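Q: Could you fold this chain for me?
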Amino acid sequence: MDPYLNHSGKMENMASLNSANSALHFETEPNYGNRISTNGTLGMTQTVQPDIQKTRKISEPGPTSVDPNGFLVVDNVTKVYPTAKGPFVVLDGINLTINEGEFICLIGHSGCGKTTLLNMVSGFNTPSTGQVRLQGQPITKPGPDRMVVFQNYALLPWMTVTDNVYLAVDSVYPDKPEVEKREIVREHLAMVGLTEAADKKITQISGGMKQRVSIARALSIRPKLLILDEPFGALDAITKEELQEELLKIWSDHRCTVLMITHDIDEALFLADRLVMMTNGPSAKIGEVMTIHFPRPRDRARIMEDPEYYDLRNYALDFLYNRFAHDDDE
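A: Sure. Below is the predicted structure, expressed as structure tokens.
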């Protein structure tokens, strides 16, 4: 299955997707059209060719400078690792400004440095040159102002759901009264629909529930920046869509800033304000930044009936499969 296409099995989306697709007529591009044409949801094959002239306005070239007053600023960051064959440049001159409250998705082929960039924003790693700043302060180490949700959950399996969240709250707020800390835990478990599973061990719950625990744990300490590293990549399509909906609702209620890695274009178009598209590594850069104008709150079926959805989707696919095709995908 193609990692950039979201093949959902949810029945409620099929009618709207059929309706939208029936109005679209694209011609096959020999060099990549057949590779992006299979629609697993509808059981049909549809070949597509992006309307480049129409959609180019919605995507801008990768920034060459930053706004020094931005909420999160990645300022001319380069990451180089020494190897036996000489320096290996992972990222080369990354510039990105993220505003407070924005939801930003990052996409690109494996090896383009997405996780390396997130690690520098998280404070797990540092740039070779350049600087990453949050509210004007350089990021040099991990901190509670930035919380990460990993694809593999990173939970403590011998603890209960409650204890996993409580551990974070107690670490960041050791001086809060016990009753207040417990209330914070209960509130955030309720937020992700896990009240009834609060006393279960991590080994007793499903993958989707584990990711809900991870999200509750991250949000329980009220971070300024929520960092998501392919959080739904290991989940089935139905659970994935449900968690996307829940994440958007939580984000709408709290409006923390989000930086998220994804390999799913449909996920990015549903969630993000902007989609940052990376060129291939080594020496990867931000190739283009796509602005996603769908109004909020977002309705998945309504978005998929909008012709602009397919313009955006096809443009991103063209970027990934035509202009920056990956050798491993050939």
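A (continued): The two ends are 14 Å apart (CA to CA).
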